[in-house]
Amino acid sequence: MKYPDKLTIFVPQFLIVIDHNVRAYSNRTIYLRAFSLLRAERGNDNRINFRERVEIDSAGDQSIDLLTKLGDELEPDVTLGGWRLDLQIASLIRVPRDSDREAEGKVPLQRLSLALGNQPIDVGWFDRAGGLSTLIHTAASFRLPAKWQNQQPAREAIDAQLMAARAHSVWLAIAEKLFDQGEARRKAFASFDKFISKKGGMNKENGK
Predict the structure, then answer these.
(1) How would residue 205 be classed by pLDDT, with cut points 50, 70 and 90?
(2) Distance between the two ends of the chain, CA-based, in angstroms?
(3) What is the pLDDT, as a whole number, of residue 33?
(4) How far apart are CA 92 and CA 69, in angstroms?
């Protein structure tokens, strides 16, 4: 497994509600309530340009809007990185299933499907605990407020800092695993340090 030139870290957060609507696909309705994306594109000099985006549904009725925004960020040639991507994708597919806007969810899901064809990287493969130990250790080592011990934080605990920190810790875990010692690794982590020192670029969709 090699570190890809175009990597997008994807960290979603879902809300599951027990719904007794007999017309629903299931009594467990899934909402996408937040996501964090960290795009990392490596240049010929091995330096990496980072851009992040965090979206949170504070109103509780924007799941399809968030799914559309997610799809807009996924280029066909990008490699997806994340944690337990199988479960995350399965939940994403369910988001539009019972929605009145189900048809709108097809386009972003198709873009997601294309991105999944590029050999995604899952931190869940990195240790015997399904990647959770790796993420907890990485977040602690880099002092990131990712709170991986609490995998499903309460609604009031979700904020941009937490979501961004989770995406950062996923990238760091992947970079530590895939980069061998040497100049490329040094430049990758130096690029990340520079990105963090400039506060990243959260939600810079208006000034990419």
Answers:
(1) very low
(2) 30
(3) 92
(4) 13
- Report the sign of the C-alpha dihedral through residues 149, 152, 154, 158, in that order: positive
What is the extent of the structural domain holding 125? Answer: 6-206
DSSP string, 52-100: EEEEE-SSS--HHHHHHHHHHT--TTPEEEESSHHHHHHHHHHTTTTST
- Does the residue 52 lie in any domain? yes
Cβ atoms of residues 118 and 82 within 8 Å: no
The backbone region for 137, taken as left when phi is positive above 0, alpha when psi lies in -120 to 50, beta otherwise, is alpha
**98 in a structural domain:** yes
Mean pLDDT of 135-159: 80
| Contact present, 126 and 83 (Cβ < 8 Å) | no
Secondary structure of residue 175 in the 3-state scheme: helix
pTM of the model: 0.88
pLDDT band at 16 (very low <50, low <70, confident <90, very high): confident
Question: How many domains, the chain?
Answer: 1
* Residue 1 included in any domain: no
Is the confidence at residue 154, as pLDDT, over 70? no
Q: Which range (20-24, 95-99, 121-125, 154-158) has the least confidence? A: 154-158
Judge contact between 95 and 89, C-beta under 8 A.
no
